[in-house]
Amino acid sequence: MGFYYGPSSPQDDPPPGSWKETFVIIWVVFKTLALPLGLLFGAILGFVIVLWAFLTSALLGLALLGLIVAAVVARGVWEARHPPDLP
Fold first, then answer.
1. pLDDT 10s digits, 5-21
2. Contact 83, 72 (CB under 8 A)
3. What is d(CA 33, CA 40) in angstroms, rounded to the nearest whole number?
4. Contacts of 8 (CB under 8 A, 6+ apart)
5. pTM of the shown model
6. Are 71 and 60 in contact (CB under 8 A)?
7. Residues with Cβ < 8 Å from 50, sequence gap 6 or more?
8. d(CA 64, CA 60)
9. What is the DSSP letter of 83?
10. Residue 63: which of 54, 75, 72, 74 has the closest Cα?
C-alpha cells in the first residue's frame, strides 16, 4: 500500500517553504544582482568623485578625466596584446 499512498515511515526532508529554501532563494537573487548593482553604484560613485574634483579645481578634474582615459587606453592595449585563447 505504500506504493499508492506513500511510505509509512516519516521522511527527513524539511516541509516545503522552509527557512532553508527561503535563504537559498535570497542568496540566488543577491548573487544574480551583485554585478549589475555593483557596476551601477560604482558608476554613480565615480561620477560623484569626478564632479567633486571639478568643483574643487578644474585642473584636478581634467587630471582625473585624463587618468580615466589613460586607464581605458591601457586596458585596450593590454587586451590587444593578450587575446583570449579560443578552443
1. 666 666 666 666 788 88
2. no
3. 11
4. 2
5. 0.61
6. no
7. 61, 64, 65, 68
8. 6
9. P
10. 54
